[in-house]
Amino acid sequence: VPLVESGGGSVQAGGSLTLSCVASEYIDSSYCMGWFRQAPGKEREGVATLEEDGTILYAQSVKGRFTISKDNAKNTLDLQMNSLKPEDTAMYYCAARPPWKTSYSYWGQGTQVTVSS
Asked: Which of 79, 85, 96, 107 ranks highest by number of CB atoms within 10 Å?
């Protein structure tokens, strides 16, 4: 399932951005979706994910600042990012997986977020 992210950009610390992910094909509402990021020289990490039981998981570093939301009717997944910090600088990826899999099967091409101090 092709996923396309948008909304990245450059902001100053303390600013906000909203990332959006659109699935160009239908994704069943049971699919798990999430946002991941990878900074230069670092491993990819989960930022926020929607689990099959409805649980929302956030990385500790973004709790209270980021909010993930999904619109099943529009096949979109958003990530509202507030109070951005320079350490949030990374390539952000949207991903999806069917509920019977533990690893994410579908990935977008990524959108760059750069936060300056």
From this structure: 79
